[in-house]
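Subject — a protein and its fold
Fields — amino acid sequence, C-alpha cells
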Amino acid sequence: MNTSVAVFDVIDEVIAPLSAEVPERPSVMEFYDPEFEIPPVLADTEPLPGRRSSPVRSLADEVEQYTRFVAGMSAIGLAPGGEVTPEAVGLYRALRGGFIRGVVTGVFPARQEPWEVRFFGDEDYTTVLHKLGNRARLRSGFLSELPGWVFDGLPDRPPGPGQHVRIETDEGGLIPRGCEGAVEQIRECAARPRLGTVLVDLAVRNAILAEYPHGAFGLVDNDLGRYQFSAAVGRTGRWTVTWGPASRSTAEQWIVEAVQSHA
C-alpha cells in the first residue's frame, strides 16, 4: 500500500457527503460554562462534582446571581413566567455545566435538511435537543434516557453484510502494508449509493473522545445496510480504525461505554 494513505484519508472519504453539506458542525463545548454555579437558594447541599464550594456572597450578590440564572433559564423556555422547578434546574445544570457533551450530525438524501442533535448530561440529568430544519424538540430527564433519546429520529436500516475490520496505523497515522484488503472493504462500502451519513462528536469531562479530526465515530447507510466507523488515537500515538455492520443499538452502546469509561 502507498505509505501516503493516512487514517484521515480514509475517514474523509467515509464522511464526504456530510462534510459537503455541513462543512462546520457545532462545537461540543457550546453553551458550556466552566464557572457555572447554581444559586444557593436553588442548590442542593453539595457543590457540582469536581467544583469547589463558592465563597460566601453578600445578599445583593446572591440576588443578582439568582436573577441572571433565572433569566438564562427563561431565555430557553425553562422558566415560563419566572417559575423555577427542581427538574428545570437539573436540566439547565446539565446544559451549562454537564460533563457529558455531544453533537450528532446527519445527512440523508431523503431529507431536505440536515439532522442535528445536541445532548448534555451530568451524574443525574440529561438534556437532548433535536433539530431538523426549523423544527426543534427539547427533552429532559434522567441520565439513563440519554443514549436512546439521542438517536430518536434515526431512520431504520438493517446491518449491512460483511466482516468487522480493524486497522492500526503507525505512529504517524499512516496505514501500514498488509492492510490493503481492509482499506478496500471500507472504501468500496463508502462508494456505494449512500442513504445516510451520521457523525457523533462527544466529550466526557476533559476528554474529547470524538470530534473529527480529533477522533471519530459514526454511521453510514448505503444500499446494503448500515455500518459503523470509528477512529481513535491510543496512548502510544497510533490510531485504530474500525468498520463493520451496525444497528442503532451499536451507536447507543458506544455512547454508554464512552461515558462509563471516562465518567
About this structure: The CA atoms of residues 257 and 263 lie 10 Å apart. The mean pLDDT is 86.
